[in-house]
């Protein structure tokens, strides 16, 4: 097959195909509604559709359906706006005001900007006071929409128009709240922004409408009018002001970023050390009814604990809620988690940690449901990176009594019972890995005893004592003895006639090395136009063995191609549903769309932790909490992969800011890595087995993720048992190997266990001449058995991972079908 024949065969998407599976659109709308968070409501919502409502703010027309960059750049076949959708539902929207906004917006189209310069907000239309008061004479209720967007390479900033309101928005807010009986404010944003103004302005209801994809406007209209309930619960804490976030003093560093708040991220910090600085707590969100959650028991066996409870709808409307289960900390009441207090643990621990959650079914008014929520006891464990418990580098459950709380947010809970541990339990003893570089020590947050409970203390972060060079040399993989040429194909492997090892033994070193590079460009001619890149069977010799090119596409909110594709609710919207089964259903339909469009690997889900509200890509990610992140990602991966195509969770790990993301060094303790930043990935890997994973651009404790042996080989593959393929984020940084002078660039990458450079093959480093990256071959020396050079076993290991992935995807099926079709055609031609 020539390259163009492959392209011809594999290009299934055409620019004209606008068809969207109606089941996917329906579920996307339900998810967008279920992810909408009602933060406060004095009864103004739901709107009565027969009562006039005046809608203010240009975002009602210029709606933000998604954020910017690779995670947002989807050719949606359609989008929906709030104004159109309210009218579509028959809401009594004030026609005069609506016409004014439509006219003005048509004349002031939002600017289309270059990559990384996208608008964070759209300038607001100024209205005369007389217009507002005249409108208020026609309607008692106003809805005011405020919109924000950020994205890849586009951080939020502490400026009006990003984290803060603009002067025009403030003026409009004052005009509307001053004239209307009730003002409902909708914030349509992918990020948490400052919300302190809402209470000051006396708004009647405040709604967070995350970018909800193509059905987002329609979903919100249905929520506002009560067709659907606002089902969302916060997956992040909203602080009273930005300065209250524990990451605030450290976020945004250009060269490096000390994760000094350590495990005290989000509610783990706020609930333990600064409860008064919280505006809306983690897990908070209202529905249109009230559901009482009453714990009825707690039991456990040696592996799991089960909370039982009764959920009763005590309100007037049908509705559901999220049941959240948190562990408390042993210690003196009032001084949770203070090391050194009587009965307190040795390790400083957040006062609350989420250990499980579920959703009730929809309950009719007065109806009740008995529920059980089971969680593994190891969710009570902490990671000891200092040896304070006597078990360095182990997950341990310290002795003591652990209260288990159940409720509707981290604050709104009742105790379900207590779990007693008489002795310390070592859940898992690991080897030290990925600790901070002793050359860059820093102080990390801990708990110190205070008069009224714990206060912030600081302690030196434990730094690395590992001889990484020796670790790598001790674990070099055994080579598979080359057998020279033979005719084994990937089909032979897939059908059990040969093993992957047989195939690898027949490949030349050049062919093996080829497998570790993607196609040199994005938009590979081997795949559907607009793809993100290809890997696998990129050269004729490999394709002759039935190894197909594997086509990747972005991303978390939809398939990014030069073709129409469904635009789904963003990651934060999906997570705010707290409904992994719903996410899995959506992802399965999305996987089916991948097959129709010609995508083998979706570069999703985005799994980085919401460490700070200013991170531009937070909309793609799920939460400040790793359990929410891990369970949502696992559901998405399972759904996508149920169709035979592959997911690619990203970015492993600590891509928590966009500022200098490709050079920045995330300096973070081994404990915070295990408990916060890696934990979601671990859950996803161990419960959903993604076929690929993408490393991040940034460094972690001094080494880029794509060169990071401890991250990829010691932890991901060794500790978690990952057997899939690992790829870089797009165009890794080039650098000499710090430990092996004969190696650099892709040789270091392959040694670390990162299988494929994406898109691949080319050196983009300004300090080096542009050209083909041949570091794998130039780093290989068949005569050298010392390990100073790349070994055959390492190059083969990479090839095995790539081939295993290729064999397991739809690409193989598609290539097979293609061959069958060709054979048929040839037969017909002969006849
Ligand atoms: C992003 C990835 C994305 C890739 C391909 C990179 O810039 O960080 O998330 O998948 O580009 O578009």
UniProtKB/TrEMBL annotation:
Any single GO BP term: carbohydrate metabolic process
Cytoplasm is among the record's keywords: no
InterPro entries: Cellulose_deg_GH3, Fn3-like, GH, Glyco_hydro_3_C, Glyco_hydro_3_C_sf, Glyco_hydro_3_N, Glyco_hydro_3_N_sf, Ig-like_fold
This protein's UniProt keywords: Glycosidase, Hydrolase
Chain ranges of the Fibronectin type III-like domain: 321-410
GO MF entry, a single one: beta-glucosidase activity
Presence of keyword Ion transport: no
Enzyme Commission numbers on file: 3.2.1.21
Protein family according to the UniProt entry: Belongs to the glycosyl hydrolase 3 family.
Designated name of the protein: Thermostable beta-glucosidase B
